[in-house]
Amino acid sequence: CGMNYDKFSHKKIADFDAVGLYSSSMKRMDGFLMGKPSVIKSTDDWKNADGYFVEIKINDIKKHRKFPMMSFIDRKKGTRNFTDKLDNYIDQTIVVDKIMLKLWEKFHDVKYEFIRGYMFNDGHNNNINTVINDIFNNRLFAKNETILHDGTKKEWTVQECLDEVPKAWVKKNKDTVKSFKNPIQEIWKLTMNSGYGKSLTRPHDTKDIYKNEDQYLEHIGILSTSKLIMAEVMFMAEDNNIKMYITDTDSIHMNLEDVEPLGELFKEEYKRDLIGCNLGQFHTDFEMDNCDNVYS
């Protein structure tokens, strides 16, 4: 839970869910780092490099969170522990990438000592930004495909699909509809979701693992960006005393009545819409119609 609230909330609960979190990360990130890394020297401006992986010693954590985005691996237990208590980091060093370190600096106000690391400065391959968006839209159209009894297909725009106009139209005109939702949408969904898994690399048994330019662990950038997406929303809620009860990888359980206010606060800060059905947005997953009592 992570919060000292009553066990039950006596209000309607929203499962405030990130739309395709890993896919949203792939659309938002700068892309996959290109080229070979170089060892960071004392004269290098490594913090402004295209990307880096550094080993640091954490000296202080000035901002503590109810749902920390900081974590360390307990080597003895084989577990990853999420905590922002300094005592857990005193006797160890942490390896972190550029995206996550900037997150820690912004939202946890972390103070640290640089020990060593590698940096990349040959730009990004950003093809993933458009490819994942195209796959998402293909699934969106298949998910809303509407075939009428006369054999014609009713055409929808991307925005109409995002606004769930087809679903409402079919419900109202069900007598004229032969089929709704093309099963191929599951294939597009699988393709979209497997994009993250396919970015993983197998363990290397050689020391020179960057002998080819395409051997970068892309999944680290995806994971770190997904944490950033969640951090922006969760810490916006926390900083404005909006209750959150539990969270998992891509969603937050919170009071339904707080969703719209959170969306307004987010838009004021980040100048983009939080609530919606597009990549990079959040929506409520619970179907609340005809529900009188929903507890968390």
Task: Please give a structural write-up.
The protein is an alpha+beta fold and 296 residues long. The chain is built from eight helices and 15 strands. It has a four-stranded antiparallel sheet with strand order 13-14-1-15, covered by helices on one side. Strand 5 and strand 6 (79-82) form a beta hairpin. Mean pLDDT is 87; it is low at 210-216.
Question: Which characteristics define this entry?
Answer:
about 300 residues; four-stranded antiparallel beta sheet; 15 strands
Strand content: 15-25%
Structural class: alpha+beta
Main beta sheet: 4 strands, antiparallel
The overall average pLDDT, rounded, is 87
Q: For the record, give the distance between the C-alpha atoms at the N and C termini, rounded to a whole number.
A: 10 Å
What is the count of β-strands? 15
Helix and strand string, N-terminal first?
EHEEEEEEHEEHEEHHEHHEEHE
Task: Write the topology of this structure.
Layout lengths: L12 E6 L2 H8 L3 E2 L4 E2 L11 E11 L9 E4 L4 E4 L11 E4 H11 L1 E11 L3 E2 L1 H17 L2 E3 L4 E2 L3 H5 L2 H8 L4 E4 L4 H13 L20 H22 L4 E4 L3 E5 L3 H12 L11 E3 L12
Antiparallel strand pairs: 1-14, 1-15, 2-9, 3-8, 4-7, 4-8, 5-6, 10-11, 10-12, 13-14
